[in-house]
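[step 3/7] inverse_fold.run input=structure_tokens len=385
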């Protein structure tokens, strides 16, 4: 397994990062282009705040964790400066999207813009040591916590009181975000917060009887027999489990790490497509037709986050099962998402058979994040075995 470490590190540093350095910089107006063709050509100049923040975080992380390269610091600052100048409304909420010049396009209805902005400014604070950036991260994080019960606020379209649901995505992201911001928030606040989030994930969203992690549960923590209530997203659940593993390792709680591994395997086995290979995007818990029409697509981030979870599982105890699954998912991922012709960044969207659906390297939902973060996490994890 350790031999994979160099492969993943080489792909990160020699292919993926150079692609974004070459093609995503907007030297005219700041920030990044994320809508890029297979060759790296810009096909749309709108800027999606969560993707701007993700890229700024990624280059800050590389600078802090791999090498203090001036070009990586410069890339990170390009996004940070743009976000600080244009990214928020007067209440401190982060917009969903901006035009190329930074004028708002879509209101701040999506709390994930805030989550990744907090990550980006928290990581850039480590680059510079400037408390100004730490304060932006901290203010944004407190704003996120204040919006937990109704993340979309006035932009929520649902009628209150009839079917109030909790969404899995926010606690999943908070698991990781809290650890990312620990140097700013302090161990006590992070410990209290992660304890409550882990309890919610492992005892409410996860149903021990079925072995499934649901995307939506009732406000009281129960199963809701509806399209939304039956919805499964194996990739989300698996990604959350490596966040939980990190929390368990931080707390020196081997029992929590082991439980996260068990849950991860259950989602992987449920989500694996035995006919064509790869992991389904969405599923219905009872086997009914899924609500999401794209349910059977194979997406890049689902497979990469699974590889991170399997690498961390293997590193924990050297499990032969983790090694076997890692090799299986690795073969599928590298053979289907990696572009052997244009190289650089990987493709993101395949049909069920593993055939290319969209000839793009970045867009509205895909930027400089899941591929480089996964390659970084896997290479670091396996190198440190």
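[step 3/7] decode complete -> sequence:
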């Amino acid at each position: 397994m350790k031999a994979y470490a160099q492969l993943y590190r080489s792909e990160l540093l020699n292919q993926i990062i150079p692609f974004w350095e070459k093609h995503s910089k907007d030297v005219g107006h700041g920030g990044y282009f994320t809508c890029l063709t297979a060759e790296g050509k810009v096909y749309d100049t709108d800027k999606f705040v969560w993707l701007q923040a993700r890229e700024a975080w990624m280059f800050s992380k590389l600078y802090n964790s791999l090498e203090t390269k001036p070009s990586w610091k410069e890339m990170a600052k390009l996004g940070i400066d743009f976000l600080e100048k244009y990214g928020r409304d007067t209440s401190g909420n982060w917009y969903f999207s901006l035009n190329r010049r930074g004028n708002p396009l879509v209101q701040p209805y999506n709390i994930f813009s805030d989550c990744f902005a907090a990550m980006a400014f928290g990581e850039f604070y480590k680059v510079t040591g400037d408390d100004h950036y730490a304060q932006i991260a901290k203010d944004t994080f407190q704003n996120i916590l204040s919006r937990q019960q109704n993340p979309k606020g006035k932009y929520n379209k649902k009628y209150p009181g009839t079917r109030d649901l909790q969404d899995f995505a926010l606690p999943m992201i908070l698991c990781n975000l809290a650890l990312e911001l620990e140097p700013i928030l302090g161990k006590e606040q992070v410990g209290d917060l992660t304890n409550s989030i882990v309890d919610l994930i492992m005892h409410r969203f996860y149903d021990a009887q079925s072995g499934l992690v649901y995307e939506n549960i009732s406000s009281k923590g129960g199963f809701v027999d509806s399209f939304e209530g039956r919805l499964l997203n194996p990739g989300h659940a698996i990604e959350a489990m490596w966040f939980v593993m990190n929390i368990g390792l931080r707390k020196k709680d081997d029992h929590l790490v082991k439980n996260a591994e068990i849950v991860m395997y259950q989602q992987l086995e449920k989500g694996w497509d035995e006919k064509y290979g790869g992991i389904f995007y969405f599923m219905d818990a009872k086997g009914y037709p899924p609500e999401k029409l794209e349910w059977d697509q194979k997406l890049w981030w689902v497979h990469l986050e699974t590889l991170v979870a399997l690498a961390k599982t293997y590193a924990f105890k050297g499990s032969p099962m983790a090694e076997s699954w890692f090799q299986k998912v690795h073969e599928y991922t590298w053979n289907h998402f990696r572009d052997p012709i244009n190289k650089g960044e990987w493709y993101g969207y395949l049909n069920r058979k593993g055939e290319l659906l969209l000839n793009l390297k970045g867009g509205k939902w895909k930027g400089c994040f899941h591929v480089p973060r996964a390659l970084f996490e896997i290479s670091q994890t396996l190198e440190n075995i």
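[step 4/7] annotate
The first strand starts at residue 35 and ends at 37.
Residues 163-296 form a domain with the Glycosyltransferase fold (CATH 1.50.10.20).
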